[in-house]
Structures are given as C-alpha cells and as structure tokens.
Amino acid sequence: MTHSPDSTVPFEHLRLELRRGSLVLAVLAALRSERYGYTLRRVLADQGMEIDEGTLYPLLRRLESQGLLDSEWREEDKRSKRFYKLSPTGKQTLKLLLAEWRSINNSLDGIL
Amino acid sequence: MDLVDRYLQAVKLWLPARQREDIAAELREDIRSEIEEMENGLGRPLEAAELEAILKRRGRPIAAASRFGPQRSLIGPTLFPIYATALKALAVPFIVLWLVRWAYLFATSAAVRAESPVAWVAHASAGFWSTALLLFGGVTLLFAGLEVAQSRTHFLEKWNPRDLTPVRNAGRIQRSSSVTDLALQVAFAFWWVRPRAFISLESPQGAALSPGETWRHLHGALFLPVLLLSLVMAGLALVNLVRPYWTPLRAMARAATHWATALIASTVLAQGWRNFYTESQWLKHGAGWPGVNGFATTVADVVIYVTLASIGIGASVAFAVQVVRAIRLRQRGRTELRPASRATEAFCL
After folding, report:
1. Phi-psi region of B59 (alpha: psi -120 to 50; beta: other; left: phi over 0)
2. Which label site among A19, A61, B150, B257 has the fewest CB atoms less than 10 Å from its CB?
C-alpha cells in the first residue's frame, strides 16, 4: 500500500479549485464551433484541459439554462447526438470573461 | 451493451424526472463514443473487463446521477455551525442528566443492583435512545425548517455590524455576577439558619401557614451540608470578585459545588416527594382559611418541587459547563487568560 506525501493532498485540492474556474472559460471558448459532448471532451483533453463526463455534462446543462449555449439533437453517423454551440449571449459573455481573465492574468503576473 | 444498459437504467433511477430520458440518451452516446474510440485504437471489440473499467471510472450510478441534480442539503453551510453548536449544547446536559439518573437508580434500587450486567445495561439504556432520537431529531427538523426559511427569505443576510456583541474575554468573570452570587448565597445562608422567619406567614385573621414535618425533617438532616455548601459558594464568589479570572482550580471548585447542589436537590426530591404530597404537611397547620388551605398546599408543593427540580437540572448543567471550562483552561494555560499586569487589569475593567 502506498501513501502520497501529505503536501500532495492540499496541492491536489487547490489544483482542482484553480482548474474549476478556468473550465467554464475553456468550454465556452471551445464551443465557438459546434460540437457534441464527446468531441468537446476530446478537444479539451488534446489541449491539456481534461474534463470528465460527470463534470462536463452538468456544466453544459447549466450553461444552457443560463442562456449561454444553444443545443439540438441531430443524427450523425446514424446516431443521435446532442450538439452544443455558443448562443449570441454566450458570445458576448465569453468576450467579457476573456477580458476579465486577461486582467486577472496581468494582475497575477504583477504579483508574481 | 447489456452492461451499459444496466448502468444507464441504474443512473436513470436517480436522475431528475423531467430530464431523465434526455440526460440518459446523452450519457449513452458519450459511453458509446468512448467504447468506439477504444475499439478503433485496439482494432478489436472490447472485452468485458475493459467495458467494466469504463463504467467503473464513471462512478456509481447514484454518484453519476447526483451531479445532474440541484445542490441540496438539509442544513446548509451557513446554518450548519449553529446547528452543530446546538447539538453539542444539548448533548452535554442530556448525557449528564442520564448519568445522574443511572447513578440514582443504581444507588437506590436493590433490584437494579442485583441484575446481571447485560440486564443492567438494557435497564439503564431503556428510553435513552428513543429520547435522544426525539430530542436530536427535533432539533434537526427545526434547523431544516430554518434552512427552508433562509433559502426563501435570506433572513441571515439581514444584519447590522452595530448589533455585534462587545469583545469578551472568555477567562474573565463578570464582577456583577460575583456580587449577585455572593448576595444570594449570604441571603440563602441567613434564610437557612432561621427559615421560619421567612416561611411562616400569618393572615390578619390569625391563620398561620408554617412548615410541616417533612420540611423540618429535611432541614434537620441537611442543615450542616447545605449551610457549608452555601458558605463555600459565598467564599468562591468572594474570591471571584477579588480575582475575576477563571483558573482550572476555581472552575473545578465551582464544578464540585454544583455537583453537591445537584446531589442535595436530588436527595430532597427523592426522599421528600412522597411524604410531601401524601401527607401534605407543608401547610397543614394553616387552619382558618377553609377551602383555600388545600389549594394553597398543592400550589406550594408544586412550586417547591419544580424549584428543586430546576435547581437540580441547572446545577447538573452548570457542573458540566465548569468541568469543560476547567479542561479548556488547563489546555490553554493560565497565563494566556490573565492580564499581564495590574495596568492591563485596570484597562479591562
């Protein structure tokens, strides 16, 4: 039985917290092009933003209920899939969030 | 795909009814895409173990479904600290009272002492768990109700910093409390030494209400212990008045006086109860008030019983509080809670 060093436990929690905030931004940005859930996961993973389905799908539903995403069921390769894309409100919100993110980045750069 | 269907069926059971089919269809598609991708990579269909691994990684069906529901809690994070404090505050006197009850049963009942350990445990715990469940369940329901009210009215968000209580020193004893305590103990000691002057009443018609045999018997038997206890408590109040900071020793001394008070109260209640009521001796000599005398006797009996019971319960709770205080003081160390100098003390006053 192996034990991880104590310091990795708080680090892992903090890392997840840090990533959680960025995930919304990453998902919104990735949905500037229309995608269905699984391909969205692959695109994010390829860019180093791994996200499990248990986090992604509830997040997509929440963003849709907030009016930031539009979705529709469509057939592709003889299989029914739900496609998501940014809504006009989502596009506007993404712009504002990106500006906020850059501002935070600049502030952090200054502090660090 | 049988295993996938079984998994989705189990997930659907816990999904919100309105979105059940929609979410399940999307999850199915996601699992199928993952399987397809793995099969393409391996160049062969997945084996049962590999399929199981995919589902296992997605978590238990109930856990997978719970992520789609709204975040719910019976008692939310804002109220939870108050709820936990309330439970702790109830737990201490509750356990102390039951311990007193068990000790009393053991001390007074020969039948209980003769029981086997198993029977004794069964006897002792009868009513304990049901009362505890009722009590703590009631508090939980109360806080769940408050949580509902909080989510609707946000009453906890309406507050004013000016209403906050002044900064307190946990180790400090209020001088006003010591003065009150001292005055009460001295008054009680005087009353105890010459009780008839306070208890005997005379009506203009000459009717007298005077203590009965039971009271006189108890007063005679407990005269010295009660007087001593009262004097010790007066002495402690005096010490607290001069040096108004708790120390572990003083907290333990105070705990001992509370314990003695609870013991005396329970002794009086246990021994005097039956004689008190069946013989109605308290106001027996109060002739001259026909029709009123019996009623007055009953009222006096009830008032005395309730007062004694309240004193017993209050002393038990106070005993527990002082023991906890003594333990905490010992843990923190005395120096932390006392002023560094006279000047600091003057400033604190």
Report:
1. left
2. A19
- What is the value of ipTM here, to two decimals? 0.81
Number of Cα atoms under 13 Å in the Cβ half of residue A78 = 0
Partner residue facing A38 (CB), from B30, B59, B64:
B30
Tens digits of per-residue pLDDT, B228-246? Answer: 999 999 999 999 888 888 8
For residues B344 and B66, give the distance between their C-alpha atoms in angstroms, rounded to a whole number. 56
DSSP B230-298: HHHHHHHHHHHHHS-B--HHHHHHHHHHHHHHHHHHHHHHHHHHHHHHHS--TTTT-TT-TTHHHHHHH
Burial class (CB in 10 A: 0-12, 13-18, 19+), B56: exposed
3-class DSSP state of B141: helix
**Kind and range of the H or E run holding B153:** helix B128-153
Question: Which among B263, B184, B175, B174 has a CA at the least distance from the CA of B226?
Answer: B263
Residue with the two structure tokens 């005398």? B293
- Gap between the Cα atoms of B327 and B287, Å rounded: 54
Written as one letter, the residue type at B296 is A
Q: What are the tens digits of pLDDT across the range B74-114?
A: 898 889 999 999 999 999 888 888 887 777 777 777 777 77
Please tell me which of the candidates A37, A52, A55 has its beta carbon nearest to residue B26.
A37
Query: Do B34 and A36 make contact, defined as CB atoms within 8 angstroms?
Result: no
Task: Note whether A57 contacts B19, CB cutoff 8 Å.
Answer: no
Query: What are the structure tokens assigned to B154, written together?
Result: 């946000």
Helices of type H across A6-75: 8-30, 37-46, 53-65
Question: Using an 8 Å Cβ cutoff, are B288 and B205 in contact?
Answer: yes
Residue A78 contacts B, CB cutoff 8 Å: no
Q: How far apart are CA B73 and CA B151, in angstroms?
A: 11
Q: Whole-model pTM?
A: 0.54
**Which amino acid belongs to residue B104?**
Y
Q: Which amino acid is residue A89, in one-letter code?
A: T
